[in-house]
Each structure stands twice: as C-alpha cells, then as structure tokens.
Design a protein that fits this description.
single chain, alpha/beta, TIM Barrel, nine-stranded mixed beta sheet, 41% helix, 15% strand
C-alpha cells in the first residue's frame, strides 16, 4: 500500500492594502517639512495554506500620495515570496531577508534604499510576525530568547565587517546573555521608558501645546518633544512656553525633520539653547554624515539624534564611526525589516551609543516597541538614557495596540509584531474606496 507524503505548507498570497487616515484635518503629525500629512500604511499580509489560521501582518508607513508608490513596490515582491515553504521561511529568516535584499534586479532600484527597500522591510516584518505567531511569542520575546549564534545569523554583514564583525556581534550578545530572564521579568513588571511627541506638533496653538505638555507630565512622561524649523521666533516662543509648562526637571527634545542646512541648524539651536533642549533631531539631511558631525561639535551639550529617515545599516555605520550622533533612532518601517534593525542595534552597542527609536505614524509604536525591548533584553542590557517615542493616535485600529502606562510601554503579550490592524479599520480607511474617503469626495 503506497502512502503519499503531504506537501509542505506554502505562502499562498502577498496581499497589499492602501490604508490612509485623514490626519491633516486636525494637523496631527504636522511638522516643518510635512505641514498637512495624511498618515498612511502600505499594508502587507502573508497568507498560507498551513491550515492554522495564522497570517503575517506588517506595513510600510507613508504620508498620503506616497502610498501609491509604496503599495506598488510591495506588490512587486509577490512573485519572489508566494510559493515558498512556510517552515523554510520561518526557520531561517536571515536567508529569507537576504534573498529579497540581494535580488540582482530589484536591488538595482536601491541598492538597499528607497521604496523598494521599505517594501522589502514590510514583507520581512510580516514574515517575522508569522514566525513569532507560530512560536506563540511576541516578537520582542521571540528575539530575546533566541540563542546568540542564531541572532548573529539574522544579520547581513556585507558592508559592515570593517566596523562590526560577526565575532564582535556574538561577543556583545554573549555578554548580555546572563541577565536575560531577569530583564524579561522587569519588562513584564514595569515596561520600557517612553517619551511623547503628542504636545509638539507644529500646527498646534500655544494653548494646546501647554495643556498637552502638562498632561504628559501628569501621565508620567519625563521627556516630551516639540517640532521646530518653520519660524525661529515661533520656535523660541513655543519652547519657552513648553519649558514654563513642565518645569526644569523634564527633558524637552526638539525635531527639525531635516529642514535646515548645517549652519542654519547651528544658529537655530544656539538661539534655542537658553531653554535647554535635550536633543536636536534630524537637524539636516539624513545622508549628511559630515554635516551631523559639524552640528554635534557646534551645539554641545545639546545632543544630536537621527535615524528615522536613514535608509540602511551602512549610513548608521558611518554616523557611528564618524562620531556624528549622540542618539541613534531606529525606525521599524524604514530599513529592511527586523533583520537590518538587529544589525543597527548591534552597531550602536559596539559604539556605546544609546538607541531611542522613532515611532508615531501608523503602527510604528506597535512595531518598534518590540525592537527596543529586544535591545534591552539581549543586546544593550540597559534602559539608561533610552526612551521610545510615543504618539497617542491611531492605536485603536490595531488588534494589539501599544499601551503606555505611567510613561512606560507595557510589554506586548500577544504573539507576533503587534502590526495587525482590525478588519473594520482596513475596510473603512481603504483608499480611495473606503467609506471614510468616499464621504470626502
């Protein structure tokens, strides 16, 4: 009697949805470079025939029209993903990531930057979401309990080994290994420190800024952030208002969103210095290593932070080797997914520079909290001078929304990357045919 071996479960579809929120109506998210943004998500879903009901969900964050291009870029990856064995992908996410990043024709569009690299990140993150769900763990814990050698295998060391070798990465991870379980317990008990940008959008009135700043302190935040860069007189007044509202013990960071040339950044920050800004974020072009170094040298003791628009690990390597930044800001949806962010976290640990992730947007808080918590558990082993950005909007659209209590992100408990959106939200905010958008025509 012959028996047939069952076929392995395979990825059967990569679905892409264009989801947009009309945040420009209340000027939520407004800054000097993005005065009226509609926060948007090019949303990716990996479906399988495994029969377990599990799917991989993730997204690339954009603002409005950029979603047209970003969704198309994700859809272009479908032929390279559909048909792959689920077990093979989830068992070696490093190989899966490298197969997409190194595709000889698609990489021509970067290489490793821009819409195609962000698309790769969305698909890779969806695969991590699926793998963690299959393991029954949130991604932060899935990573945090992974053996060091397996973590090193996730990293693409091409173009990095002059600054960080696999052996050095392994040493960093081994050094942090003894306290992992204690740090997991502390995370579950207390959470991870957060700061909030909610008071600081550029379109808000001074009265709204002051009220939200006071509310943030009452909610347990010890750091807030203000957008700057449109008008120096306005920024001096707004920073003075914020400082008078929260007192001297609260850190106030400021964020220029790449608005300035190098000398403009230096002059502007010297004018704001009397109000003791903690860091200046994205003072100039994210690609300008020498410019960041010059700003950092000129505005001390104000710190320089950047990272949310940095395209890949190689630029982070240059910033760190050049001593051009005080704060590294990873983003969950800008580089090539979890794997590349592991590389950046290891680089920051090698150069002893704290990581304070960028969040906000759509789903960025949900996803990046996992990376910060993994860093604490298995890489840096500390939360000193480390905070994750938090913005209090759009979380209600997620199955497992980010939760902040007493100024700390609570550790997610549900398996996955926390990126899965509610079906009703996907339907209502679908662009251009969802009811939220058809009602505006």
């Amino acid at each position: 009697m012959s028996s047939t071996v069952p076929s392995p479960a395979r990825i059967t579809a990569l679905d892409v949805l264009d989801v947009r929120f009309p945040t420009s109506e209340q000027l939520d998210g407004s800054d000097a470079m993005n005065p009226e943004p509609d926060y948007s998500a090019a949303y990716a879903v990996l479906r399988t025939d495994a029969g377990d009901g599990l799917e991989g969900h993730a997204l690339a964050f954009t603002t409005g029209r950029g979603n047209d291009v970003q969704a198309a870029a994700i859809a272009a990856l479908a032929p390279h993903v559909v048909g792959r064995p689920v077990e093979e992908v989830c068992a070696d996410l490093g190989a899966f990531s490298r197969s997409l990043v190194h595709d000889p024709q698609l990489r021509w569009l970067g290489p490793e930057k821009g819409a195609i690299h962000m698309a790769t990140g969305a698909v890779v993150n969806a695969a991590w979401d699926l793998a963690a769900k299959r393991a029954g763990k949130p991604v932060w814990r899935f990573l945090g309990e992974m053996p060091p050698r397996e973590l090193v295998a996730q990293v693409d060391f091409r173009w990095l080994s002059d600054a960080l070798t696999p052996e050095e990465a392994l040493e960093i991870l081994h050094r942090a290994e003894p306290g992992r379980q204690d740090r997991i317990a502390r995370l579950l008990e207390r959470g991870y420190p957060a700061y909030t940008t909610t008071p600081g959008w550029l379109g808000y009135s001074d009265e709204k800024l002051a009220r939200l700043a006071r509310e943030a302190v009452a909610d347990g935040f010890t750091q807030i952030k203000l957008k700057v860069g449109a008008s120096l007189d306005d920024d001096v007044r707004r920073l003075r208002t914020a400082r008078e509202s929260v007192g001297d013990s609260i850190r106030i960071a400021v964020d220029a969103n790449q608005r300035w040339d190098v000398q403009d950044a230096i002059d502007w920050m010297r004018a704001l210095a009397p109000y003791r800004p903690y860091w200046i974020e994205e003072p100039t072009s994210p690609d300008d290593i020498l410019g960041h170094a010059a700003v950092r040298e000129a505005v001390r003791p104000i710190k320089v932070a950047t990272g949310e628009h940095i395209a890949n690990r190689v630029v982070f390597k240059q910033l760190l080797r050049a001593g051009a930044v005080d704060i590294v800001q990873i983003d969950s949806a800008r580089v090539g997914g979890v794997n590349e962010n592991i590389a950046i976290l290891l680089l920051a640990a090698k150069f002893n520079v704290p990581v304070c992730p960028h969040a906000g947007g759509v789903g960025l808080c949900e996803m990046v909290q996992h990376l910060a918590m993994f860093d604490y558990v298995a890489v840096s082993g500390t939360t000193e001078d480390r905070v994750v950005e938090y913005v209090d909007h759009l979380h209600e659209h997620f199955v497992d929304p980010a939760r902040v209590l007493d100024g700390h992100y609570r550790a997610p408990a549900l398996p996955g990357l926390s990126a899965q959106m509610l079906p009703d939200s996907l339907k209502k905010y679908a662009y251009p045919d969802g009811p939220v958008w058809t009602a505006r025509v």
